[in-house]
């Protein structure tokens, strides 16, 4: 598959984008999940016996005091949320981007990418926010919930459906700038390491890691506020983003906004690299298989038609192969620009 074929991959099939995005989301959140558990405890308003100290100290106490599997408690909630959320995110981004790009001139493409990314983020967070709430409550020290379903039932009975979306506006306020910084940093890395935007696993990993680290560091204060909104650790009910900012300052001052910074970077850097490399690989693999099936179907049709009329077969063959490049589950008139600006995603 040459560079031109690869450039057209993201726009050829919604099914491919959804499948690749689901795998990417699950891998991103699960592989580095223990560090996410450490980050959650470090960001709590009142660090419990399992939450104070360095990353190594928190992880060590978590395992020694609560068992070997404690750092991955709540992972099933992330699997349930990350798969559909990322499938929706990647497919929505590509669909909106392609529709809008076809109706605008090239100088406005950067605005199209931003608009598509914002809509995709809103939908993604709508699916992920309940999973984040459940996951973070299970990650806390001395969590009273037996499992994911017990946590969901308890939250619903005692706090209502609103509790699952209490941090939604904060999540959006964090993710919109996070994704913007993420795309900019990723594209900058790609322009240096992979200017042709070919399928290059090493470039995807390095650019993704750099983008994740930069975006994570800059949005940590919002992540801290999201954590205390989700966990509701202290006796005071945290009602919204403004209230959360005030409480963080009251309990920890300015340094309180950067609790868990190192853990967040350590988690997000490889997680973003894994997400990008997984997405690119599955997109490349799935589209190549789709193209192979399409080629086999065309070959079979040509063999059947060869007994009818050689000239007619030649005409059909030329027509079919003209549509081969970029074929998939859904065909588009124009392949649009590169990947997720979402290589860029």
TrEMBL record:
<dbReference type="InterPro" id="IPR023395">
    <property type="entry name" value="MCP_dom_sf"/>
</dbReference>
<feature type="repeat" description="Solcar">
    <location>
        <begin position="199"/>
        <end position="285"/>
    </location>
</feature>
<keyword id="KW-1133">Transmembrane helix</keyword>
<keyword id="KW-0496">Mitochondrion</keyword>
<dbReference type="InterPro" id="IPR018108">
    <property type="entry name" value="MCP_transmembrane"/>
</dbReference>
<keyword id="KW-0813">Transport</keyword>
<protein>
    <submittedName>
        <fullName>Mitoferrin-1 isoform X1</fullName>
    </submittedName>
</protein>
<keyword id="KW-0410">Iron transport</keyword>
<keyword id="KW-0408">Iron</keyword>
<keyword id="KW-0472">Membrane</keyword>
<dbReference type="GO" id="GO:0005743">
    <property type="term" value="C:mitochondrial inner membrane"/>
</dbReference>
<dbReference type="Pfam" id="PF00153">
    <property type="entry name" value="Mito_carr"/>
</dbReference>
<keyword id="KW-0406">Ion transport</keyword>
<feature type="repeat" description="Solcar">
    <location>
        <begin position="12"/>
        <end position="99"/>
    </location>
</feature>
<keyword id="KW-0999">Mitochondrion inner membrane</keyword>
<dbReference type="GO" id="GO:0048250">
    <property type="term" value="P:iron import into the mitochondrion"/>
</dbReference>
<dbReference type="GO" id="GO:0015093">
    <property type="term" value="F:ferrous iron transmembrane transporter activity"/>
</dbReference>
<keyword id="KW-0812">Transmembrane</keyword>
<comment type="similarity">
    <text>Belongs to the mitochondrial carrier (TC 2.A.29) family.</text>
</comment>
<feature type="repeat" description="Solcar">
    <location>
        <begin position="108"/>
        <end position="192"/>
    </location>
</feature>
């Amino acid at each position: 598959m040459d560079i031109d074929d690869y450039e057209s991959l993201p726009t050829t099939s919604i099914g491919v984008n959804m499948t690749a995005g689901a795998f990417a989301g699950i891998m991103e959140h699960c592989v580095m999940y223990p560090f996410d558990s450490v980050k959650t405890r470090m960001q709590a308003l009142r660090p419990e016996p399992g939450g104070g100290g360095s990353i190594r100290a928190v992880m060590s106490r978590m395992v020694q005091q609560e068992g070997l599997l404690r750092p991955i408690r709540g992972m099933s909630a992330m699997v349930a949320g990350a798969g559909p959320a990322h499938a929706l995110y990647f497919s929505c981004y590509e669909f909106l981007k392609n529709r809008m790009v076809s109706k605008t001139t090239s100088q406005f493409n950067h605005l199209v990418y931003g608009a598509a990314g914002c809509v995709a983020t809103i939908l993604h967070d709508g699916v992920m926010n309940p999973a984040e709430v459940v996951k973070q409550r299970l990650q806390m020290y001395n969590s009273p919930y037996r499992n994911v379903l017990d946590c969901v039932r308890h939250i619903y009975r005692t706090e209502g459906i609103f509790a699952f979306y209490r941090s939604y506006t904060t999540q959006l306020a964090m993710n919109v700038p996070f994704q913007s910084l993420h795309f900019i940093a990723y594209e900058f890395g790609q322009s240096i390491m992979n200017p042709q935007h070919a399928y290059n696993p090493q470039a995807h990993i390095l650019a993704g890691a750099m983008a994740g680290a930069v975006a994570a560091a800059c949005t940590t204060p919002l992540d801290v506020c999201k954590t205390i909104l989700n966990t509701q650790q202290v006796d005071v009910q945290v009602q919204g983003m403004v209230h959360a900012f005030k409480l963080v300052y009251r309990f920890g001052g300015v340094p309180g906004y950067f609790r868990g910074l190192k853990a967040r970077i350590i988690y997000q850097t490889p997680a973003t690299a894994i997400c990008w490399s997984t997405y690119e690989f599955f997109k490349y693999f799935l589209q190549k298989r789709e193209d192979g099936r399409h080629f086999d179907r065309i070959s079979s049709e040509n063999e059947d038609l060869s007994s009818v009329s050689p000239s007619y077969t030649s005409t059909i063959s030329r027509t079919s192969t003209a549509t081969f490049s970029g074929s998939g589950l859904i065909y588009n008139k124009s392949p649009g620009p590169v990947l997720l600006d979402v290589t860029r995603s």
